[in-house]
Specification:
single chain, alpha+beta, 10-stranded mixed β-sheet, 27 strands, elongated, binds adenosine-5'-triphosphate, HAD_sf, Cation-translocating P-type ATPase, translocase
């Protein structure tokens, strides 16, 4: 398939084609230009050809960072910069020593080199190697993270409704091609540029593209000057903009990088890589430690030189360099990044897509989960079970969305009579017939039979669109009302769309061209029929007559009371109830096409003086897994709340069934909430867990009230108007399946399966991530403190005069080895620790607690001191012992080795705060065992393999020395385990 036109050549390189001013064409010209067929849509073969020609409808990820940017970014890290500084100083010292040697021996520099007066600058070289390695590792991690993010972006890529192969399908936005006909409605993000073919009240927010804050009212019958600016092209829609209101049928004109958004090449990133508060805090900590260590260097060097004399300057500089390296936890940032990345991956496996990284951490401290009802707590499979008309009750039977089943009248005593035959419905029960007609006409969903579904037990009947409306189409099918036939016979002329604020929708259809099955027999000679459906209370207020059989009669106060009573009866069974009404009209009211909210209830409001048809009660069963998830929430100290647009009795029945509310608990309605001051609401949110008939702005008030009470609130939402509440909530959660793009854009997390249980699972993962971060922060920083204290105490304990040579127990190289390898590997393994059994049996951690809270800071300092005391004791012993041997320098290797081995024991012990090593299941996190074994072997290689010995400045330990190292290291583990036993005893005693 090729498209030949003067403006668009049929080359695969369509980007090179001259752009068309689509706004200057009328719909027909645009259709011809693109060889499109709006009635049937393109065929699959045409779509394939056009995809090959134009490429997928994707924007190149221009917002992402280039390879070089990521790589250079690694070396901007303050810790690495400090290491580079240390390497330069260390190299300078070696050069200085060489220069001094040549001076003393009266040699030229070249002779000095030849005679080996210049020591090999291995510390400096090794530091450079480590800096480069660290940078490369960081780069690999980050580019993997960027890849993972773009994979996540694809997961959240929007779906679009298109007309293809003579039917309406839902496809991935990236599969759109020029010539496709897409159907857009409120809440959608427009997926490609296009020429509008049809619309109803279409309003689009184009701020993303034009910067214009006000939504734009779109129009069809306009052809504009080719020079018209972007913001004034009222007959076009643009990729990346948002449909605020109404619906439209749009011919796709440009896709991918050829869209206006593609042209200005600003991608709206759907997944944001923000730093988490913890990462920010760690960065600040890193900066503080680097500054602190610099101050320490200056103090030790200046103070030491002053006290000990200029001749010790070099030794003091070496000590201080080691300390500077020891203070900084070089391995920590990488481990945190990996842990967060692993956490988000585990969450995706459990169907929660994290859009903003800080959410991973915040999830661990969530105290309240505010959830929608429909679709999140319930299955969102609407099955109509009952109809309540003026003087008729009907029981509805059938399976799922299958449009087959029966309509059985029920008498006042509850006796079920023979079903009304569909063929005679119009004569036998004209009111039911009219109600079913309103169900089909006032409907935007599509009921389809997918014959390719061959799974046993799975129904081929499925809906595209809102399940509530799908349920109504299935109901209409039971009376033989076929959607396709009806929408052709009674074409829609205008509509006032549904929104969660209005809680109702109305359509205006033309009845003057209808054939034999005309509704005129019941509705009279109307040219236009208005059909409305929505919240029964709200719709009833707008009715002044009621349909009784084939006649409409005035609605009396007794009728109203009766209808509301029946509504309550259905709702208290947990059914979702909709009211239906209609009105015959002589002509289309001018307000129908541009209905403004301020018209509500005014004389010009078309939604007035309606004729009440009846109530439809639908079963939307709770999701089976939610009861257990609610119970887990409660055990975890998290309060589940239901905030729904549905009726209070429906909400209450479902909330009680799920355990969110108890018998007798209060339900607060939107109307009551409206009358409350924010102070009163704050007081109420502490007690009330179910909110019904609320609007999106009430959700915002509820979140604010909860937050004012110090709660950390997660809030779900799916509509366009939910965006402010989602942004305000600590964790805004959007629905992956039914959610609008606007809500997803505003959210921190998207539920890929729309399921409440997934929120609880994500919360659990958030807690695991936080626990693991605390675990390895404890592990890494505890030993850092130990290292610093040991190095600092060496010059005090071992008299300089005796050592003669250097007095630094640990060289910068050895410290880097410990921080990055012997600490780093087990820390990574600790990041993989599975959830502890009690992770959802304890309250959430306090919202604003720092990472060092709950004893972590004290633990680090305590363990650091224990490390230092034990290592210093070993240093004293080993120094004296080694002086009597033929390898007097081995005391340093002993200090180095025992610190490493003690950390191995620490890694095993730190896995649990309460269980002893022997009580833990080693196989529940085999990575710890593997990393400990591997690291121990590497350490032994450093001590015993000659090339490594000379590089790392170690010497082989004899058997006694090795045993002593083990013994001293064991002391540290004994202390940690002793602490656990003491705490157990202490808590038991209390
Ligand atoms: P939740 O807030 O838990 O998702 P909900 O679906 O009831 O529940 P909304 O979508 O805000 O919340 O709907 C509010 C009310 O509007 C519904 O209870 C119903 O009475 C009415 N309603 C829902 N969908 C439609 C629709 N497609 N057409 C007309 N009225 C509707």
């Amino acid at each position: 398939m090729t498209i030949d036109s003067p403006a668009r050549t049929a080359t695969p390189n369509a980007a090179a084609a001259k752009p068309v001013a689509w706004h200057s064409l009328d719909p027909q010209a645009a259709i011809e230009q693109l060889q499109a067929r709006p009635e049937t849509g393109l065929s699959s073969a045409e779509v394939r050809d056009r995809l090959a020609q134009y490429g997928p409808n994707e924007l190149e990820d221009v917002g992402g960072r280039s390879v070089w940017e990521i790589l250079l970014g690694q070396f901007g890290d303050i810790m690495l910069l400090m290491l580079i500084g240390v390497a330069f100083v260390s190299a300078g010292l070696d050069l200085f020593e060489g220069w001094q040697g040549t001076q003393q021996a009266n040699l030229s520099l070249a002779e000095g080199f030849q005679q080996g007066k210049f020591p090999f600058p291995k510390d400096a070289l090794a530091i450079f190697v480590i800096v480069i390695l660290n940078g490369t590792l960081g780069y690999l991690q980050e580019s993997r993270a960027e890849k993972a993010l773009s994979a996540l972006k694809k997961l959240s890529s929007p779906r679009v409704r298109v007309q293809r192969d003579q039917q309406v399908l839902e496809v991935d936005a990236k599969e759109l091609v020029p010539g496709d006909v897409m159907l857009i409605e409120a809440g959608n993000q427009v997926a490609a540029d296009g020429r509008i073919l049809e619309l109803a009240n279409l309003q689009i927010q184009e701020a993303a593209l034009t910067g214009e804050a006000h939504a734009v009212d779109k129009q069809v019958n306009l052809t504009l000057d080719p020079e018209t600016s972007l913001g004034d092209r009222l007959n076009l829609v643009f990729q990346g903009t948002e449909v605020i209101q109404g619906r439209g049928k749009v011919l796709v004109t440009e896709t991918g990088m050829r869209t206006e958004l593609g042209k200005i090449a600003t991608m709206i990133q759907s997944v944001e890589a923000e730093e988490t508060p913890l990462q920010q805090r760690m960065e600040q900590l890193g900066k503080a430690l680097v500054t602190g260590s610099m101050v320490l260097v200056v103090l030790v060097v200046v103070g030491g030189t002053f006290a000990l004399g200029w001749e010790n300057f070099r030794k003091l500089l070496e000590v201080s360099l080691s300390m500077a390296v020891a203070v900084v936890p070089e391995g920590l940032p990488a481990v945190i990044t990996v842990t967060l990345a692993l956490g988000t991956q585990r969450m995706v496996r459990r169907h929660a897509l994290i859009r903003k990284l800080p959410a991973v951490e915040t999830l661990g401290s969530v105290t309240t989960i505010c959830s929608d009802k429909t679709g999140t707590l319930t299955q969102n499979k609407m099955i109509v079970q009952a109809l309540e008309l003026c003087d008729r009750s009907v029981r509805v039977t059938g399976q799922g969305y299958e449009p087959f089943g029966s309509l059985q009248p029920v008498d006042a005593a509850g006796q079920v009579a023979e079903p009304i035959p569909a063929e005679t419905l119009v004569q036998e029960a004209p009111d039911v017939y009219l109600l079913l007609s309103a169900c089909v006409l006032c409907n935007d969903a599509i009921l389809q039979c997918d014959k390719t579904v061959t799974d046993r037990g799975k129904s081929p009947w499925m809906i595209i669109g809102d399940p509530t409306e799908g349920g109504l189409l299935a109901l209409a099918g039971k009376g033989n009302l076929n959607q396709e036939e009806w929408t052709k016979r009674y074409p829609r002329a205008a509509e006032i769309p549904f929104s969660s604020d209005r809680k109702r929708m109305s359509v205006f259809v033309r009845t003057d061209q209808a054939g034999p099955l005309s509704l005129a027999a019941i509705t009279g000679p109307a040219k236009v029929l208005m059909a409305s459906k929505g919240s029964p209370e709200l719709l009833l207020e707008r009715c002044d007559r009621v349909q009784s059989g084939a006649q409409a009669r005035p609605l009396t106060p007794a009728d109203r009371a009766d209808i509301l009573e029946r509504n309550n009866q259905l709702a208290s069974k947990g059914l979702r109830v909709l009211g239906l009404a209609y009105k015959p009209l002589d002509q289309l009211p001018p307000e129908a096409n541009n209905h403004a909210p301020e018209q509500n209830g005014s004389a010009t409001d078309p939604e007035q003086n309606l004729i009440w048809l009846g109530l439809v009660g639908m079963m939307d069963a709770p999701r089976p897994e939610v009861s257990e998830a609610v119970a887990r929430c409660r055990m975890a100290g998290i309060r589940p709340m239901m905030i729904t647009g549905d009726h209070q009795l429906t909400a209450k029945a479902i909330a009680q069934e799920l355990g969110i509310a108890a018998e007798g608990d209060r339900v607060l309605t939107g109307t009551e909430l409206e009358k409350m001051t924010q102070g009163e609401l704050e007081e109420a949110v502490g007690r009330v867990s179910v909110y019904a008939r609320v609007s999106p702005e009430h959700k915002l008030r509820i979140v604010k009230a909860l937050q004012h009470q110090g709660k950390i609130a997660a809030m779900t939402g799916d509509g366009v108007n939910d965006a402010p509440a989602l942004k305000q909530a600590n964790i805004g959660i959007a629905m992956g399946i039914t959610g609008t793009d606007a809500s997803k854009e505003a959210s921190d997390m998207v539920l890929l399966d729309d399921n409440f249980a997934t929120i609880v699972a994500a919360t659990e993962e958030g807690r695991v991530v936080y626990d693991n971060i605390r675990r390895f922060v404890k592990y890494i920083l505890g030993s850092n403190i130990g290292e610093v204290l040991t190095i600092a105490s060496a010059p005090l304990i071992i008299p300089i005069s005796q050592v003669g040579g250097d007095l630094v127990p640990l060289t910068p190289l050895q410290i880097l080895w410990m921080n990055l390898v012997t600490d780093g590997l087990p820390a990574l393994a600790l990041a993989m620790e599975p959830a502890s059994p009690d992770v959802m049996q304890r309250p959430p951690h306090a919202p604003h607690e720092g990472i060092f809270a709950r004893g972590l800071g004290a633990y680090m300092v305590r363990i650091g001191i224990v490390f230092a005391v034990v290592t210093i004791a070993l240093m004293v012993w080993s120094y004296n012992y080694a002086q009597g041997t033929n390898h007097p320098e081995s005391w340093k290797t002993m200090v180095f080795t025992s610190l490493c081995i003690a950390q191995m024991g620490h890694a095993l012990a730190v896995r649990s705060e309460t269980k002893l090593i022997v009580e833990m299941n080693m196989l529940s996190n085999p990575y710890v065992l593997w990393s400990v074994t591997l690291t121990t072997l590497l350490q032994l290689a450093l001590v015993y393999l000659p090339p490594l010995q000379s590089f790392f400045g170690t010497s082989a330990l004899d058997f006694t020395e090795l045993l002593v190292c083990l013994g001293f290291s064991a002391l540290i583990v004994v202390w940690i385990e002793g602490e656990k036993l003491f705490l157990r005893w202490f808590w038991n005693k209390r």
